[in-house]
Amino acid sequence: MMKKLIIIVLSFICMGWTVAETPLPPKKVSKAWRYHAAGGFNYPSLYKHSETFVDDVPASVEVFSNGDIQLCYWSLLGTWSTFGEFPEEGVWLSPTERVKNVTYRAQSKGVVSGYTQNGKIYYLQQKIIFGGEVKHSKVLVLIYPKSAKSRVSSLINIVKDW
Questions:
Q1: Sign of the CA dihedral 136, 155, 143, 34?
Q2: Which of 75, 110, 116, 157 could form a disulfide with 120 if both were Cys (CB 3.0 to 4.6 A apart)?
Q3: Burial, 155: exposed, middle or buried (Cβ in 10 Å; 0-12, 13-18, 19+)?
Q4: Burial track 69-91 (b if 16+ CB lie within 10 A, e otherwise)
Q5: DSSP label at 92?
Q6: C-alpha to C-alpha distance for 143 and 155, rounded to whole angstroms
Q7: How far is CA 83 from the centre of its chain?
Q8: Which helix (H) or strand (E) holds 109?
């Protein structure tokens, strides 16, 4: 009887060691999200992707959109975007939206929020690009109507944590 008990206990110990030493399976890749490698952020895979050159800036912006919600990535803005308080009134946030005003600014984090001239809310983060003779910046901005606030919390977190 004692031999049987020892064998059972040793079996459980060995199984426990085996389980502890077995690596966890990799996390499943979500089909609902895609990773933008150059920008370093995730975006919903069902969003339409387009790239537009905005002459007034001048720069290209990648837009990921779903109806009236836009996630815009400016990969390279000129030195003008690193001076003073960015963004100011009238600055382009997307090919269709400009800044009306700023209602929140966390300068040390590069986070700014406010309203567009079309009455939508924007939430952006700016990162300064060092190197070369002058500084430039890149910007990730979320633009959405007030009615969509409950649907964009995950996108707000993506911009905030970018």
A1: positive
A2: 116
A3: buried
A4: bbbbbbbebeeebbeeebbeeeb
A5: B
A6: 10
A7: 23
A8: none
